[in-house]
Amino acid sequence: MRADSYLEKKVIYMEQKIAIQDTYGERFQHCWGCGAKNEAGLHLKSYPTEDGSRCICRLTPGECYTGGVPENLFGGMMAVLFDCHGTASAAYFAHHHKGLTLTGDTIIGRFITARLEVDFKKPLPMKKEITITSQAEEIGARKVIVLMQMEVEGELRAKARMVAVGVKDTM
């Protein structure tokens, strides 16, 4: 199989899958970064891979998110992207670890950030698609440690490590 058709097949698979953020309960759908019900938000979408070992988020940020260095993404926005993708990934990894799958009826357990460490490697250029991938380093009863990478055109721009904790619906 050609590499191009393999990548196209992966993208089509992700487009047909359910976004993790779309399985959040009503109470948790208002986040500025990933909330489906926040009209002014970014509406980030994270999708698990076919085997469930990773989660992927792709987006091209608007020009208004430029940083102090023109034509490069604001570093705080990079942290926001890691934060929203990381908590969605943690929720999915915990769900998947229990042997569960995502369906149209899933209301996934919600996770929040307890700690986020970001290593900025290179400036992230504007007007380019960003790919954020994640994998679980550790899955516990209430805590998931998530490792993430942010790339543009296959080049590593930042890495992150998140400690995410599960919360109750009544939080």
From TrEMBL:
Gene3D superfamilies according to UniProt: Hotdog Thioesterase
Keyword Cytoplasm belongs to the record: yes
Alphabetized InterPro entries for the sequence: HotDog_dom_sf, THEM4/THEM5_acyl-CoA_thioest
A molecular function GO annotation: hydrolase activity
Biological-process GO terms, alphabetical: fatty acid metabolic process
Signal peptide positions on this chain: none
UniProt keyword terms in alphabetical order: Cytoplasm, Fatty acid metabolism, Hydrolase, Lipid metabolism
Record carries keyword Membrane: no
Record's protein name: Thioesterase domain-containing protein
Natural source organism: Megasphaera hutchinsoni
